[in-house]
Specification:
367 residues, alpha/beta, Rossmann fold, 2 domains, 8-stranded mixed β-sheet, 7-stranded mixed β-sheet, 13 helices, 16% strand
Length: 367
């Protein structure tokens, strides 16, 4: 199969969907790999490295989309890319369709098979292709939150680690999944007073043991959440419902009650956000102030650490890309985890979470 890797055009998105090592793996299996000129430059992978790995360099996106049957991307296609897509293509990327009805309608009209990294799901519920970017985003959430707390950035002027004789900053992390756990790891590492809230008590018990008392774990209720947010200097929203919109657990009233200059980093923004006050931002303009609270809501946070993120992403996606390149849609029938990645095909929604967000019913039969 011809496999195409276009350059990402979302603002400040420097990741690329395939490393030269990944291109080599596909080429060795007899696939033609077509990489757009400069696609890997932002992540530190020059065109020459792809050529050495057995890929071809295309001068523009038009050739990549025209000649490839399998399109590998990082982020969802942008409106200017819609006319380049075809019904006979497989699109393998992060789609995040639930909060984006415009994109959903466009892909349904095109009729292609849209396979979303974020909904590929193993039998135990693990999301293996979301995992590495969730790890990145969770760790970054504390990093960017710490910067946003600086006074010249509009924050409270609090150092998360504190000083001898000075109380450390307080961090409230909402959600104990991969994002929340990695955020907690970084917060504790900086010396912050960190609390992690979730409704999954067995998971909280495991994390309590793992952090050996350095992290406060709390059963999440609206009352407890409101209490923690009132006292927090930094709040990290890390709530996920696979394929569907994130629930607005953090209400506007809760945000209004936070300290002036406190910071909210909503990592769930790519699924609509878990705060009522969330709206998507970009790396060019990452923050805004709402109800006196600094909001950081960049929908592609890992794009800022493009090399690390690209390596982690390809490590996870390559085995599935190999299956799709070899078997096309037959790969979905052979791999139940990959089948759950199918979000749209031939004008129908195939994922129940996306269907719920769109107010429609999901097609259950595989193509």
């Amino acid at each position: 199969m011809n496999v195409g890797v276009p350059k990402e055009i979302k603002p400040q998105e420097e990741r690329v969907a395939l490393t030269p090592a990944g291109a080599h793996t596909l080429a060795e299996r007899g696939h033609r790999v077509l990489v757009q000129q400069g696609a890997g430059r932002g992540a530190g992978f020059p065109d020459e490295a792809y050529v050495a790995a057995g890929a071809e360099i295309a001068p523009d996106a038009a050739q990549v989309f025209r000649e490839a049957g399998l399109i590998l991307k990082v982020k969802e296609p942008q409106p200017s890319e819609y006319p380049l897509l075809r019904a006979d293509q497989l699109l393998f990327t992060y789609l995040h369709l639930a909060p984006d009805p415009g994109q959903t309608r466009a892909l349904l009209e095109i009729g292609l098979a849209g396979i979303a990294y974020e909904t590929v799901q193993l039998a135990d519920g693990t999301l293996p292709l979301l995992l590495p970017m969730s790890e990145v985003a969770g760790r970054m959430a504390i990093q960017v939150g710490a910067h946003a707390l600086e006074r010249h950035k509009g924050g409270r002027g609090v150092l998360l680690g504190g000083l001898p004789g000075v109380r450390p900053g307080r961090v409230a992390i909402v959600g104990a999944g991969t994002v929340g756990t990695n955020a907690a790891l970084m917060a504790v590492g900086l010396g912050a007073d960190a609390a992690l809230l979730d409704i999954d008590m067995p998971r909280l018990a495991r994390l309590d043991l793992a952090f050996q008392g350095r992290l406060t774990t709390l059963a999440s209720t609206p009352y407890t959440l409101a209490e923690e947010l009132r006292e927090a200097d930094l709040v990290v929203g890390a709530v996920l419902v696979t394929g569907d919109l994130a629930p607005h657990l953090i209400t506007r009233a809760m945000v209004r009650a936070m300290k002036p200059g406190a910071v909210l980093v909503d990592v769930a923004v790519d699924q609509g956000g878990c705060a009522e006050t969330t709206r998507a931002t970009t790396h060019d303009h990452p923050t805004y102030v709402e109800e006196g609270v600094v909001h950081y809501c960049v929908a592609n946070m890992p794009g800022a650490v493009a090399r690390t993120a690209t390596l982690g992403l390809t490590n996870a996606t390559l085995p599935y890309a190999v299956k799709l390149a070899a078997g096309g849609l037959d790969a979905l029938r052979a791999d139940p985890a990959l089948a759950k990645g199918l979000n749209v095909y031939r004008g129908k929604v195939h994922h129940p979470g996306v269907a719920h967000a769109m107010g429609t019913r999901a097609e259950t039969a595989l193509p």
